[in-house]
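Journal club side-thread
Mid-discussion, someone asked how the predicted structure for our own chain would compare to the paper's figures. Pasting it here so we can look after the session.
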Amino acid sequence: MSDRGRDVSVTGRGRRAPADAFRVAHRGTGAWTGGGDRLRTVDVMTDQYSKQDPTTMYADKKPDEQYLPGAGTDAEMAQNVAADHGEDTYRGSGRLEGRKALVTGGDSGIGAAVAIAYAREGADVAISYLPEEQEDADRIVALIEAAGRKAVALPGDITSLEVCEQLVADAVEQLGGLDILVNNAGKQQNVDSIVDISDDEFDETFKTNVYATFRITKAAVPHLQPGSTIINTTSIQAYAPSPHLVHYAATKSTVNNLAKGLAAQLAPKGIRVNAVAPGPIWTPLQPAGGQKPEDLPTAGEQTYLGRWGQPAELAPAYVFLASGESSYVVGETLHVDGGMPTP
């Protein structure tokens, strides 16, 4: 997927439960269990603190086969199954009050969930994205502003050095500084054989996932004061690469290693660097070439929880790593993957 504006999406069916209920019964969608009038209870997230059975959450969000051209957008993906970014479920508690964050790929997927959560925790947020993803970006900007925080929209293709440098400069100027950098934007395309990976595809994947992370971080570091944080989005693929994602997996292992090396370099300056490694998360990256269309209905079944993860389930990890609660966490890769063994 040419997803240079983000990594790794709009909340859909059965997304909101009554305030006094953690479980509701659904007919149809993924909650229907068979003939007659039998129903099965499905956990619906009321907020991120609600007690729930993780195996039955989001049972109505099992996608059909789908292919999205280009980068793919949340608006397009929602025609199949919309993702949950925490629009109706994330509850903030002032953990990032007054902070200023830049989230690449913040228009959709994991980046959108992080942007929403950061705003509801009290941060002003700048998001970067591809120009063709403006509709998605407008929706996230509106949600940031609805939380009473400043939103900055920064379109551009981060495979360009000039865009990376200008992105940071614009974020710093319009936010009035920078405390949190989330390198999240990414590109993923499934290719069965290495002989079918073109130099252009290989190069663009590395420029999006690795070069942009390096360039944006390099431009941001001079603006970061002690207490600031950098968070890279890596992947389970960095630890357990799939045969059809070898070039993507190589970029994510690089991004993971970069976080650990930078953590050692920047810790003496009071800047913490960490990473988050998602597993199979339902974002536009997946149907836009990240996975084969025929694999979408069953992707995620290999995890211990047996299902796709949702962007909303990633946001708390990014909040933790950005907040003072993680003051002694440095060079860590936090796995949010539904249960996938890693070395």
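Post-session note: The beta strands are 23-26, 40-43, 100-104, 124-129, 151-155, 180-183, 229-233, 272-278, 333-336.
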